[in-house]
Specification:
With about 220 residues, the protein is α+β, with helices and mostly antiparallel strands. It contains eleven helices and seven strands. The strands form two sheets. Strands 5-7-4-6 form a four-stranded mixed β-sheet. The longest helix has 18 residues. This is Excisionase family DNA binding protein.
C-alpha cells in the first residue's frame, strides 16, 4: 500500500480491492479507522488487510471479547461457562500476534465519534469510563479529547443532553457496548483495555506502545 500515513476513501478501496461504497461501509462499521472527513488511518487499513489474509478472522462476540479481557488481566470470566472459558484460555495461548488479537477483540464495543463544545467535555469525562493508559506507560491526555466506554442504553441521552454532533474528525470517542456495564467498569481499569485502546489509536506512538503491551500480555498468558 502507499507509504503515507493517511489514505483517501478511494485509495483505501483500491488497497483493499473493494468499491468506494464498501470502503465507506468498513469505516462506518469501525473495521478501518477514520481520522478526518474523507481520510482513513493507513495503519488500520494494513491491520484489516492483514486480518483478511489470515482467513477472514471473525471478531468475538461481546461477552467473549470481555471474557478475553478478564482472562488476560488474570481474572475469572465467570459469565462464561466452564467449557467456553477453557476454550478461550486455550485460544489466547495460541495467539502470538497483537494484530490477530485486535481483530478478534474489535467487536467488544462499537466506536462512535463526535464533536462537542468545550464546555461539555468535563461532563463527558464524568459519564464515560476511560482506560488508564498510565498503566502501559502513556501519560493521560487532558486536552480537547474524550475517549471512554459507555453503556448502549445511555448513548442517545448523552448525545442529546450534551449536544454532541456526529463528526468523524471530532475529538470525542465513545466506545459503546451492550455487555454488562458493571463488569465493563471493572475491566476498563485494567492494562488490557488500555493496551487495546492505544493499539488502535491514530497516534503512532500510542499505537506502538499499545501493540507492545498486547504482545507482552499474550506472552505472559502463555
Amino acid at each position: 500500500m502507499a507509504d503515507h500515513q493517511f489514505l483517501t476513501v478511494g485509495e483505501t478501496a483500491k488497497t483493499l480491492g473493494v468499491s468506494a461504497r464498501h470502503a465507506r461501509r468498513l469505516a462506518d462499521a469501525g473495521a478501518v479507522s477514520r481520522v478526518a472527513r474523507g481520510l482513513i488511518d493507513g495503519a488500520s487499513v494494513d491491520r484489516y488487510l492483514h486480518s483478511q489474509r489470515r482467513g477472514r478472522t471473525r471478531g468475538w462476540a461481546q461477552h467473549t471479547a470481555w471474557g478475553a479481557v478478564a482472562i488476560l488481566a488474570g481474572r475469572d470470566a465467570e459469565w462464561l461457562g466452564a467449557a467456553q472459558s477453557s476454550r478461550l484460555r486455550r485460544r489466547l495461548r495460541e495467539i502470538t500476534d497483537a494484530d490477530d488479537l485486535l481483530t478478534r477483540m474489535r467487536d467488544r464495543a462499537r466506536v462512535h465519534i463526535f464533536a462537542a463544545h468545550r464546555a461539555a467535555l468535563p461532563h463527558l469525562r464524568d459519564l464515560v469510563v476511560a482506560a488508564d493508559k498510565r498503566s502501559i506507560g502513556l501519560s493521560d491526555m487532558f486536552d480537547d479529547t474524550v475517549d471512554g466506554y459507555l453503556a448502549v442504553d445511555e448513548l442517545d441521552d448523552v448525545v442529546q443532553t450534551l449536544g454532541l454532533r456526529s463528526d468523524v474528525g471530532g475529538g470525542v470517542i465513545l466506545r459503546v457496548t451492550r455487555f454488562d456495564f458493571d463488569r465493563v467498569r471493572e475491566l476498563v481499569d485494567t492494562p488490557v483495555v488500555a493496551a487495546l485502546d492505544a493499539a488502535t489509536s491514530t497516534d503512532p506512538r500510542q499505537r506502538g506502545v499499545g501493540q507492545r503491551a498486547l504482545h507482552d500480555l499474550l506472552a505472559a498468558h502463555r
